Amino acid sequence: MSDTGALVYVVDDDVSAREGVARLIRSAGVMTRTFASGEEFLAAPRPETPGCLVLDVNLPGLNGLDVQEKLAKSGPQLPIVFLTGHGDIPMSVRAVKAGAAEFLTKPVDDEALMSAIWRCITSSVEEEIRSGQNGRNGEVSKLEEIYLDDEICLDRNLGNMVGQGLGFQSILKSIQIVAPTDSTVLVLGETGTGKELVAQAIHELSPRRKGNFVKVNCAAIPASLLESELFGHEKGSFTGAVAQKLGRFELAHKGTLFLDEIGEMPLELQPKLLRAIQDQEFERVGGTRTIRTDVRFVAATNRDLKAMVDENEFRADLYYRLHVFPMSVPPLRERREDIPLLTRYFVKKHAQRMGRAIDRIPASAMEALTRYAWPGNIRELQNVLERSVILTHGNALEIIMPDLGEMSGSHVLSICGSKTSPSSERQAIIKALEDANGLVGGASGAAARLGLKRTTLQSRMRKLNIARQYR
């Protein structure tokens, strides 16, 4: 297994516990160094690399809290996961108040420990990038006319992902850390932020890159057919099943299965999905033979799965199985410093494809693009730029900005936000439908106003029991 570039330190005086934790971390493709005492750890040189510290509380000599205190005085502190065999509540409170990321009781569950470690590594990466940016996140440099003949520097990018700001770099670093492992990844973010590109990049940087990258949009496939799409079916298993069909799980064998819009997965199908992810085995619809597979899972959603769990709309066990390595993709309004680079990239791409002689983007156009809130995120930006390229007559890009009529930015963000409750989401959808005179699809329909795909909006309307009078 390839190393991720992150480094986890393990400090525990119990050799069997220490080596057990180290084996678990190495099996996830993460480098580790072990120490038998706090003094040994503090005396060792530490390279400047993202990571965390797994620290036993009850150590001989300097205990875990003493080590934490000394680290805090010596400079930027490593994120710490405390382990204790006693579950001492006052001690855990003191540790957390002093800055501990996690406090777990022995014997610790492997999944819980790795989930805590991944969270610490991610926070360490973000801190490393933040300190290197000198507080410039979100700032946009002075806007000037852009010439398309200039080369677009993509040395920090992966695949078709384009950007340069702090938020974007944090995502790239997280991809580089988790990709070499087989850990399940949950990509969170608003619609149109590029979650599928993140999943594709994870696959392309993984040891499974020669295998298939298989995509399933859980919102686009009717609930009655989704089980067959995922797991396949046997001939004659239901009306219309005239031949055996392989499901996406089998097609993704030795590769990666990307479960997009996982929040739209029907509740009745979630136990079978959980078993397939956890045990890597399933049966085809209408079949009795258990099929084993070897698949890496990446899921994505623009919904708040934890809130859905609380509302009994999503299974808690599936949520925690997916929530091993969560990654949040920032919305475009929080990546304004990336808009000029993205604009150049998309304009150049569409102009070349259409044979348009556009060679520059006026500063006034860039100002309009960076001021706009982009409720549909990068997908909306790309659509606006493609339309602008089509309608441009000369060599300078003529920007055709979106006309959202009376719809306010808060109206859009209320559904796209990651912490939307079912009741507020229902209100936002109904408001958008009313503004669109009941039209769901099309350029002026409710789906476009909310920055959603038509199929996604229709699925949410069914889930929220919104009247079918809207077409």
Key attributes of the depicted protein:
471 residues; 19 helices; alpha/beta; 42% helix; 3 domains; single chain; five-stranded parallel beta sheet; 13% strand
Question: What order do the helices and strands come in, and which of them pair?
Answer:
Layout: E1 7-11, H1 15-27, E2 31-35, H2 38-43, E3 51-56, H3 64-73, E4 80-84, H4 89-97, E5 102-105, H5 110-133, E6 146-147, H6 166-178, E7 185-188, H7 195-204, E8 213-217, H8 223-231, H9 248-251, E9 256-260, H10 270-279, E10 281-283, E11 290-292, E12 296-301, H11 305-310, H12 316-322, E13 325-328, H13 339-354, E14 360-361, H14 363-371, H15 377-391, H16 409-416, H17 422-435, H18 446-450, H19 454-463
Helix pairs in contact: 5-6, 13-15, 16-17
Task: Kindly report the name of the CATH homologous superfamily of the largest domain.
Answer: P-loop containing nucleotide triphosphate hydrolases
Shape: globular
Q: How many individual β-strands? A: 14
Runs in which pLDDT lies below 50 for 5 or more consecutive residues are 404-420
Number of helices: 19
CA(first)-CA(last) distance:
51 Å
Helix and strand content put the structural class at alpha/beta
* Assembly status: single chain
| CATH class placement of the largest domain | Alpha Beta
Radius of gyration: 25 Å
Report mean pLDDT, rounded to a whole number.
Answer: 81
* CATH fold field value of the largest domain: Rossmann fold
Total number of distinct structural domains:
3
**Which architecture of the largest domain would the CATH scheme give at its second level?**
3-Layer(aba) Sandwich
- What is the helix fraction of residues, given as a range? 40-55%
Spatial order of the strands in the main sheet?
Answer: 2-1-3-4-5
Described by strand count, sense and barrel closure, the largest sheet is: 5 strands, parallel
Strand content: 5-15%
